[in-house]
Amino acid sequence: MDKVDVLIVGAGASGGLLAAKLAQAGKSVLLLETGPQHALGSKGDLYSSQIWARRLKWGGPNSETGGANPLSVTFNSGWGVGGAAIHHYAVWPRLHADDFQLRSDFGVGRDWPLTYDDLRPYYDRVQKEVGVSGDHKAEIWRPAGEPYPMPPVPMFAQGRLIAGGFTKLGMHTSPIPLAINTEVYNGRAACLYDGWCDAGCPIGALANPLATYLPQALEAKAQVITGATVTRVLTNAAGTQASGVEYFDASGQRQEQMARVVILAAFAVQNPRILLNSREGGLANRSGQVGRGMATHPSLGIYGLFKEETQNIYGVTGGQLLNQDSYAKAPSQGQKASFSWLIANALKPNDLLGVAGSRVDLFGEPLHAFMQQASGHLAIMTYIGEDRISEDNRLTLSSQKDPYGFPVAQLVHQHSKTGLSAVEVGTKQGLAVMKAAGATESWAGGLGGQHIFGGTVMGSDPQTSVTDSYGGTHDVPNLFVTGTTLFASTGAVNPTFTVHTLALRTADHLIERWSEFG
Q1: How confident is the model at residue 517 (pLDDT cuts 50, 70, 90)?
Q2: Of 121, 173, 169, 178, nearest in space to 149 by CA
Q3: Of 312, 184, 279, nearest in space to 473 by CA
Q4: DSSP H helical ranges for 386-492
């Protein structure tokens, strides 16, 4: 293909948004996606089935993972057009103001090179364009912003029971903010509340890229090539100007695609891997920070069995209610890391967030008896915790090669003491809530990791960061990076809303300053 204005690697949340905005501004845009095409609707390939949902998880070469708390790459990433956002749960709280200034305010971690006020207008714009349901007044912890454009999702028995526990302990709940339609919005259907978010929402009620920005991008003449595995960013001899990318097409043939601007919008594991494979010592790596600062949200489920029917098959996978009473950091009181509760997640019999998986210690008849009871009487809420981004948690290149001869990612990760301390506090709090709610039995599930961050962290100092606040790499002016790979801190909320806001801000920046990339 002839040289394009903008080449985007990855057709997920940020890639789709950037493609739409840049193509609508008259730029020629090409997206390269390593996985297959997906489609919504009755003739699409998204089915409300746990087996089919697995096809939306990563299907490329495995990464090597290690350390005390290995990162869950396959669970967190996606496969095909839509990326990880095609199976995300659309839980869209905003980061809080103090998430952006950890170093300045608390003397730990990193500062972002922007503030909440810089992102606030983009949060407001995105929620209007995409459609977010919630209640900004009841969400007493939310930083300032416009009201949500849609009312919240309904509350079923599970949510009412757990909310009663929070109330008895003097704590608060609010409807959870979700990028899920509670009414017809921008021509997209309203949710059925059947809990199949993990399968990609074939009716388009959930804001995955197939339902939101990708159709806009295609209408504006952006193009998508699937089965295209990008291996390297191509540059001039000095490595100071990107000229395009090398990729292998669906038939395994090596291709080169030239572009004025290259944007890496792949998953957090693949963006730094591509940069490290692009040049000896890594492209855009003067700081030595490419691959460093990998992180995840410590996460676990708190479960309770109730005499009452919980209606746990109804609702959405992300939950019905939110609690952030423990979000504000207060180091002098021992509260060094934030955490949130996602309350009353819809459950399936097994697999991810399944009834059977809540008791991995049971087998045979004991499991059968548990399933009979729990299928109608189990309740859950999910802990999402902040963790510190550490340079020791890093991605490097493995000796193992992918089918095209390029090293796969090798990841080492360990939760911080601060993050694990908050998990202990949260676990006790969660069990107390279930007891207060009237659970006859309650327990905590195993510790896992939700979402992956880091690898090309943004900052204002080129010596200690990879990109600026727009995702533009310090060393290569026409090479940009987007997604969670930029985050300078994790916060204690799901990141996809913030990924969209950062991408929209980058799109505005590129459009306004396009002459600099000519």
Answers
A1: confident
A2: 178
A3: 279
A4: 417-437
Rounded Cα gap, residues 188 and 208, in angstroms: 12
Give the closest residue to 10 by CA, choosing from 378, 353, 263, 387. Answer: 263
Query: 């608390």: which residue's tokens?
Result: 106
E-strand stretches of 353-435: 378-385, 394-401, 407-412
pLDDT given for residue 518 in this prediction: 64
Residues 6+ apart with CB under 8 A from 94: 116, 123, 142, 143, 145, 177, 493, 497, 498
Name every residue whose Cβ is closer than 8 Å to that of residue 364 and which is 6 or more positions away in sequence.
none
The first and second tokens of residue 230, run together, are 């990008």
What's the full length of the chain, in residues?
A: 518
Reduced to 3 states, what is the DSSP secondary structure of residue 391?
A: coil
Strand ranges in 38-88 using DSSP code E only, listed in sequence order: 64-66
Residue with tokens 């948004």: 17
CB 286 within 8 A of CB 462: yes
Distances from the Cα of 140 to the Cα of 144, 297, 325, angstroms: 10, 23, 9
Q: Would you state the structure tokens that stand for residue 422, as one six-digit string?
A: 């908050």
Alpha-carbon torsion (481, 144, 344, 45), positive or negative: negative
Dihedral sign, CA of 382, 130, 44, 74? negative
Question: Lowest-pLDDT range, 35-44, 171-180, 303-312?
Answer: 35-44
Residues 6+ apart with CB under 8 A from 108: 102, 336, 388, 418
Average pLDDT over residues 223-232: 98
pLDDT value at residue 102: 92
Q: What is the DSSP string of 274-341?
A: HHHHHSTT-TT-TTS-TTB--EEEEEEEEEEE-SS---TTSB-TT-SEEE-TT-S-BGGGTB-S-EEE
Residue closest to 72 by CA, chosen among 492, 319, 415: 415
Dist. CA 264–CA 129, nearest whole Å: 23
How far apart are the C-alpha atoms of 419 and 8, rounded to whole Å? 34
- Strand-pairing partners, residue 74, are none
A 10 A CB-CB count for 463 gives: 10
Q: Which two tokens stand for residue 12?
A: 């997920």
Question: Distance between CA 122 and CA 503 in Å, rounded?
Answer: 9
Cα-Cα-Cα-Cα dihedral of 155, 158, 160, 161, to 10°?
180
SS3 144: coil
